[in-house]
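Inverse folding, one chain.
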């Protein structure tokens, strides 16, 4: 590689997120909960990082993998569906330039094959010789090859679900979340090619400057935030002999801290629980001997 082809060293990290769409608000909120703030510039394309040297680039989601591949930005928040499709489109035998760094637990959807309601589905072989409309031609093409099914891929950039009704295709391969769009078009999902959610994408190789430390800091904070999602601190007291049964009711809890109360048989327990702490669970714990149950929100955690 000639020196001029090396990505320029930078002392700030650039993170691309969707400008407007399904992922833009949750992506911003997630980065904010990692302690990032920017000089506000909602309508423009660039937000200057104030609390840390981490800037935001607001773009179309489809552009994010390419911006990372070209070194224009360092990290990006994008659907796994977009990342995987473009990884396949870009792969030409060489090493991938970017990869998924973290799954972010929002923007869940599936890339499904769907067929007309009237079809009696009896397996993938039924797609042989059929026309399948999709905005994910690389993912669909790779799956068809894997299955050794010859079918025609009809690439469309949107409104894929209407293609069978218009006679453009026999089946489709598109994103599904509630399934309402499929139902409205008399289609039914029969296969899932990819389970998707928003992901943090970053380069496949480490940065060679201060961005490496900035990215590591961001990842540590992100992991702390993701780990605490839905987590609560549970406080209660219990008699020592009831503790094993109580812990069985808390399979999602970290090993609890236990303190003896008044030198007697009563223990005060505190446990970080990662699942939802519903009223039903509290009632079950009470029934098993827990007293003075309290559920507290956890804002930050640094392991
Ligand atoms: N029901 C859904 N349909 C489509 N995408 C969904 C759904 N639920 C979650 N997503 C995720 O949200 C991402 C962004 O969806 P959106 O519809 O905002 O994209 P877009 O129209 O391509 O936006 P842009 O204008 O940035 O190109 C998808 O790539 C996918 O990962
Ligand atoms: O299973 P559902 O909850 O119905 O969601 C699935 C639909 O949502 C997306 O379209 P979107 O609404 O983003 O429209 P567009 O892709 O045509 O912009 C996707 O392309 C599907 O059409
Ligand atoms: Mg898009």
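Residues assigned per position:
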């Amino acid at each position: 590689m000639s020196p001029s082809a090396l990505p320029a060293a930078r002392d700030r990290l650039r993170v691309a997120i969707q400008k407007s769409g399904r992922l833009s608000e949750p992506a911003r909120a997630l980065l904010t909960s990692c302690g990032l703030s920017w000089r506000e510039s909602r309508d423009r394309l660039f937000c200057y990082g104030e609390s840390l040297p981490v800037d935001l680039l607001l773009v179309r989601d489809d552009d994010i993998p390419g911006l990372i591949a070209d070194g224009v930005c360092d990290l990006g928040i994008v659907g796994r569906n977009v990342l995987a499709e473009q990884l396949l489109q870009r792969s030409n035998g060489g090493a991938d330039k970017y990869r998924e760094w973290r799954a972010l637990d929002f923007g869940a959807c599936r890339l499904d094959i769907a067929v007309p309601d009237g079809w009696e589905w009896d397996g993938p072989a039924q797609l042989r010789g059929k026309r399948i409309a999709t905005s994910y031609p690389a993912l669909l093409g790779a799956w068809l090859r894997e299955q050794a099914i010859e079918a025609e891929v009809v690439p469309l950039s949107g409104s894929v679900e209407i293609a069978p009704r218009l006679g453009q295709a026999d089946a489709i391969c598109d994103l599904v979340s509630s399934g309402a769009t499929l139902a409205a078009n008399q289609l039914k999902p029969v296969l899932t090619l990819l389970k998707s959610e928003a992901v943090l994408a970053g380069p496949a190789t480490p940065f060679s400057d201060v961005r490496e430390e900035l990215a590591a800091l961001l990842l540590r904070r992100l992991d702390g935030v993701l780990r605490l999602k839905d987590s609560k601190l549970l406080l209660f007291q219990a008699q020592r002999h009831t503790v094993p049964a109580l812990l069985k009711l808390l399979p999602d809890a970290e090993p609890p801290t236990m303190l003896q109360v008044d030198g007697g048989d009563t223990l005060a327990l505190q446990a970080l629980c990662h699942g939802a702490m519903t009223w039903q669970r509290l009632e079950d714990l009470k029934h098993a001997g827990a007293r003075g149950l309290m559920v507290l929100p956890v804002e930050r955690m640094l392991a």
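The domain at 232-297 is CATH 3.30.70.120 (Alpha-Beta Plaits). The two ends are 40 Å apart (CA to CA).
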